[in-house]
Design brief:
The complex is a heterodimer of chains A (300) and B (275). Chain A has 300 residues and is an alpha/beta fold. In chain A, 34% of the residues lie in helices and 30% in strands. Helix content of chain B is 76%, strand content 0%. The chains are: A alpha/beta (300), B mainly alpha (275). Chain A: One of its GO terms (molecular function) is ATP binding.
């Protein structure tokens, strides 16, 4: 796998506060990565460091194979962080021309990218007349100008209305489908779950997990069950070695698996024991449940 | 280098306020210069025709035009501090860096623009002075015409130095209004240093020598006031008002030293700062 960004033992201190603590992870080409964490967990600081606007305290990072300077590497990166920042008195096109000059890209890309985000007909309007959703889409167009190797998005849907959120997510998905590597920082679990294949979970500057989203917790899932013979079912689950935790809520039994077991095997076992199930669902924890479980574990 | 200047020019040129200020800083000194050369009344102070006073004679005209034109630098100073202030308030500084401009390039694009405008202003003033001089001057031999042309160099260095100071204050304070306020504070500070030096050395001459090393005073000293010189030409017998008005190499060196320091400090400041 071809590395795009490698971070080694990165630490950032703001006075006595440690915003990022001994963070290491690698971004490989072609995947969609999420950096997940509550507000103030160090997501933006980490991105700020690799984008050369925040100075690191210790540790290091390298772009691509390590032979490119950060300054040159950034010309192959597209990034928007926090709010869209443009010159309010310039039109969309003028703003993008400026970015073209910085990145050394031909002006012909401007119309193409404005079309991708659906702003082509508004290109001669001043930036200050744009709605927040349009500003954010212009920021994405700007980040795409150089056909970047990697697109970095920090809270891209923050503050947008549902329609705006939907538009941005659709654009991100379309870009991901073209094979561009994406790094998406968000505190919205459902956003990361919908878009990302890999995730880095941060809390208070410390990495809790990094890897595939679906392998975030070594869990075999759980069954949701209901049966006429309620007590017998409970007793059986308590004694069976395959099951760990068993919870009872509003007559619905939730049994967590210690070992893999398919729903049909379980059904057959119950049938053999003479328990007829009126409700059987096998599920895996949602990212949100996994995330809370992960952060809770670290609390103790 | 051209790319960096183009970048900054686009930022300035599309902004209405800075466009007007740039126009004013170029047009106003010319209007004054042209008006004073045709009209008899000059700021209501002199009622004589100025041409007759001999101030449009070569070589003194170089001295006079550069001295008065340099007062119009304040208009462009506002542009300089706001071109830093706006980058901070719009957060476009951060975006520029993320887009791939290095911190060094950012400072250089501002500095090159300062040099570019100072050069334009110098060339224009030089040209206008030359033409007005040719028209009014009693002496038109080449050796006399170009005798004190070093005032143009002094004018250029003075502008670059002053705008670099503004750039540094802009970077330091991030807000245009504060940066302009700091210029006033620096002016007062330099007088406090003068007063301190006066206490130590006991005479004004030594105290002025100390003050000559400070940023604002060193820029002012590049082109001394020409009024006394005009008086001198009228009354050559009064030797007690004679003074040293020439442009000296060490005066230029001091201002260039400050310029280098201000640009370097601006860069250091930006490098150390988390945005």
């Amino acid at each position: 796998m071809e590395p795009i960004l490698t971070i080694n033992n990165l630490t950032k201190k703001f006075g006595s506060l440690t915003a990022v603590k001994d963070l290491s992870f690698t971004i490989n080409k072609g995947n969609v990565y999420g950096i997940l964490g509550p507000n103030g967990s160090g997501k933006s600081t980490t991105l700020g460091i690799v984008l050369n606007v925040v100075n690191k305290s210790t540790g290091d990072f390298q772009w691509f194979d390590g032979n490119t300077t950060t300054h040159d590497a950034l010309k192959q990166v597209g990034a928007i962080i926090e709010r869209p920042n443009f010159y309010p008195y310039m039109t969309a096109e003028q703003n993008l021309k400026l970015v073209c000059k910085i990145k050394g890209v031909d002006y012909s890309k401007i119309d193409e990218k404005l079309n991708v985000v659906g702003l082509l007909d508004r290109k001669d309007h001043k930036f200050k007349t744009y709605s927040l959703g349009m500003k954010q889409r212009l920021a994405i167009a700007s980040a795409l100008l150089n056909d970047p190797e990697i697109l970095i998005l920090d809270e891209p849907t923050n503050g947008l209305d549902p329609q705006g959120i939907h538009q941005i997510r659709q654009i991100i998905k379309d870009i991901a489908a073209t094979g561009t590597t994406i790094l998406l920082a968000s505190h919205l679990l459902d956003e990361v779950e919908k878009v990302c294949s890999h995730v880095v979970v941060l809390r208070q500057g410390v990495k809790l997990y990094s890897g595939r989203v679906d392998e975030m917790i070594s869990s075999h899932g759980f069954f949701e069950l209901k049966a006429e013979k309620h007590q017998e079912l409970l007793d059986l689950l308590e004694t069976h070695s395959n099951f760990g935790n068993v919870k009872l809520e509003d007559g619905l039994i939730t049994a967590f698996l210690n070992e893999p077991m398919s729903a049909s095997d379980f059904n057959k076992l119950m049938f053999d024991k003479g328990i007829l199930l009126s409700h059987l669902v096998k599920r895996k924890e949602s990212l949100e449940e996994q995330f809370l479980q992960l952060t809770d574990n670290q609390e103790n | 280098m051209l790319r960096l200047v183009q970048l900054e020019l686009q930022k300035l040129w599309l902004n209405k306020a800075s466009k007007i200020l740039i126009f004013v800083s170029f047009i106003l000194p010319f209007t004054v210069l042209v008006l004073s050369s045709i009209k008899i009344n000059f700021f209501g102070i002199f009622t004589l025709e100025l041409g007759e006073l001999g101030i449009f004679n070569f070589p003194i005209i170089w001295h006079i035009t550069t001295f008065f034109a340099s007062y119009f630098k304040f208009f462009f100073a506002i542009v300089v501090v706001s071109m830093i202030g706006n980058e901070y308030s719009n957060k476009t500084l951060k975006q520029n860096l993320i887009d791939g401009l290095s911190k060094k390039e950012f400072i250089l694009s501002k500095f090159y623009t300062i040099v570019f405008f100072s050069l334009c202003a110098t060339i224009l003033i030089g040209l206008a002075t030359f033409l007005i001089g040719l028209y009014y001057s009693s002496y038109t031999e080449a050796t006399i015409i170009f005798r004190e042309i070093e005032f143009l160099l002094a004018y250029f260095v003075k502008l670059v130095g002053f705008f670099s100071l503004c750039l540094f204050f802009g970077m330091l304070l991030k807000r245009s209004a504060f940066a302009l306020g700091f210029l006033v504070i620096l002016y007062i500070l330099e007088w406090i240093v003068f007063w301190g030096a006066y206490e130590v050395f006991g005479n004004a001459d030594s105290a002025f020598k100390v003050k000559n090393f400070l940023p604002l005073e060193s820029m002012y000293k590049l082109i001394d006031q020409p009024i006394q010189r005009i008086v001198m030409t009228k009354f050559p017998e009064k030797t007690d008002i004679a003074y040293d008005y020439a442009v000296h190499w060490y005066e230029i060196a001091i201002v260039l030293g400050w310029t280098a320091l201000f640009i370097f400090l601006s860069y250091r400041l930006l490098k150390k700062r988390d945005l």
